[in-house]
Design a protein that fits this description.
This protein is α/β, with parallel strands linked by helices. 38% of the residues lie in helices and 15% in strands. The protein contains ten helices and seven strands. It has helices at residues 19-32, 55-66, 77-80, 87-98, 110-114, 125-128, 146-154, 159-163, 182-190, 201-209, and strands at residues 7-12, 37-41, 72-74, 104-109, 130-135, 155-156, 170-174. A seven-stranded parallel sheet has the order 3-2-1-4-5-7-6, sandwiched between helices. Helix 2 runs antiparallel to helix 10 (201-209). It is globular, with a radius of gyration of 17 Å.
Length: 217
């Protein structure tokens, strides 16, 4: 384990959280050799349609999902904030809390990474954290665009590069994710079918008890 205790996190709406999210986070925790990875549910996402479930319901599902896994934990700072869920605000909050020297790593998928230039003040992210970009085998970044230039400027190749300094780097990790999506789960439930084994049993029980995602709620 790394002694500097980096803060590594993955954000999302988690509507609902599922085994694809959890397995990705756990594999990255093991690959990086850090103690934990934090999951930060978004309150009001600004880059996508608002989730159908409340902030409190989505937060509770994440809490249930990670309750028995010490390598994962939930961070409720975005849910508790009265501001929109801009990544910049989250990063500034983390940096203020953790100090200037502690490594901070934000995990994102390749699809999200390619849209970074459309994010609010995205150029400031790299001064506050490292970016860990998860991509599928064989995926290549396009050449000659803004994000390609950004990548060439900041790319590193080993976990040590992001775990031994506070911020400033982009690290790619090839991962074959589970073919599970929150949309798939919502549609399955709406059709009156069971999504079991796509998400933790405790989350499925919570969904059933609170009649989430079903047409009659």
């Amino acid at each position: 384990m790394i002694n500097d205790n980096p803060f590594v996190f993955m954000g999302g709406t988690f509507d609902p959280i599922h085994n694809g999210h959890l397995r990705t986070a756990l594999e990255l925790q093991q690959w990086l050799g850090v103690d934990q990875i934090a999951l930060i549910p978004a309150k009001t996402p600004v880059h996508r349609e608002a989730p159908g479930r409340s902030s409190e319901q989505r937060l509770e599902m994440v809490r249930l999902a990670v309750a028995d896994e010490p390598a994962l934990r939930v961070d409720d700072r975005e849910i508790c904030s009265d501001q929109p869920s801009y990544s910049l605000l989250t990063l500034q909050s983390l940096r203020q809390e953790l100090g200037d020297e502690r490594p901070i790593c934000m995990i994102m998928g390749m699809d999200a990474y390619q849209t970074l230039p459309s994010w609010h003040e995205w150029e400031k992210f790299i001064d506050l954290c490292h970016l860990i970009v998860v991509h599928r085998p064989g995926y290549q970044l396009p050449d000659g665009d803004q994000i390609s230039d950004f990548t060439q400027q900041h790319r590193v190749v080993t976990p040590q590069d992001v775990l031994t300094k506070p911020a400033g780097s982009v690290l790619f990790h090839e991962l074959t994710p589970l073919a599970i999506s929150a949309t798939q789960i919502r549609q399955t439930i709406e059709q009156g079918l069971s999504p079991r084994y796509l998400l933790p049993d405790q989350v499925w029980r919570y969904i059933q008890a609170n009649r989430l995602y079903s047409q009659v709620s």
